[in-house]
Specification:
mainly alpha, Cytochrome Bc1 Complex, Chain D, domain 2
Amino acid sequence: MEYTRKTIATALIGLFLTTPVAFAGNIETGKQLAFDRKKGNCLACHKIEGGEQTGTIGPPLVMMKLRYPDHKLLWKKIYDSTADNPNSVMPPFGRHGIFTDDELESIVDFIETL
């Protein structure tokens, strides 16, 4: 089958339109939620660039896009880390209603920038 420039351009446009894109507003909202000591409190356990008084219980959140290339897997990990590891000390933020699905999406968008 012969591919033309138009065919390739159409395919690329389709891929772009169907690929989830993190918006700057989501990233900033996610950062605020992750750093909020009364809501997410990710800093209590994780070292995160830009955070103060970080914890060491959990792993440092660095190179996260390489560690979790699949957006959905990272989302599920934050939603309920006990699903994969019943002994996890990380709270099941989604399952316990600490974060809404939209808030989780913003947090994942932020974490993927680390």
